């Protein structure tokens, strides 16, 4: 009988997943998320932007090409272009089976 009462109690009570400060009429939750946005999210986006566009521009030398037999295997040609380049081919990042393209 005690188990049924316990199950009924948990089934009828709504869980409080938003925390104690985000209740109706209280703006504590709004202040918390506003502060988190300004103090964590915006600086985090700025750091990611700096890493993506400023730091990576300085790294012009790509990895050394090693002609492994199991990579870049072409059993048939691609149906576009010359048949050797992938659909989203980038000559600075994606090597061909013979190595990187050098367009100086």
Compute the number of helices: 2
Low-confidence stretches: none
Mean pLDDT equals: 78
Major sheet description = none
Radius of gyration: 28 Å
* CATH fold topology of the domain at 77-104: Cytochrome C Oxidase, Chain G
CATH superfamily of the domain at 77-104: Cytochrome c oxidase, subunit VIa
Terminal CA distance: 82 Å
Q: What's the architecture of the domain at 77-104, going by CATH? A: Irregular
Q: Roughly how much helix do the residues carry, as a percent range? A: 40-55%
Order of helices and strands: HH
Measured by DSSP, the beta-strand proportion falls in under 5%
Anisotropy-based shape? elongated
- Give the tally of β-strands: 0
What does this structure look like?
By secondary structure, the chain is an all-alpha fold. It has a domain at 77-104: Cytochrome C Oxidase, Chain G, CATH 4.10.95.10. 40% of the residues lie in helices and 0% in strands. It has 2 helices and no strands. It has helices at 2-12, 28-58. The model has no long low-confidence stretch (mean pLDDT 78).
């Amino acid at each position: 009988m005690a188990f049924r009462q316990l199950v009924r109690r948990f089934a009828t009570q709504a869980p409080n997943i938003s925390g104690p400060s985000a209740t109706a009429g209280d703006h504590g939750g709004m202040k918390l998320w506003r502060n988190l946005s300004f103090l964590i999210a915006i600086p985090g986006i700025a750091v990611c932007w700096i890493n993506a566009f400023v730091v990576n521009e300085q790294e012009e030398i790509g990895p050394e090409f090693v002609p492994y037999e199991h990579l870049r295997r072409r059993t048939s040609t691609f149906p576009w272009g010359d048949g050797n380049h992938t659909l989203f081919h980038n000559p600075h990042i994606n090597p061909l089976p013979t190595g990187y393209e050098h367009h100086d």
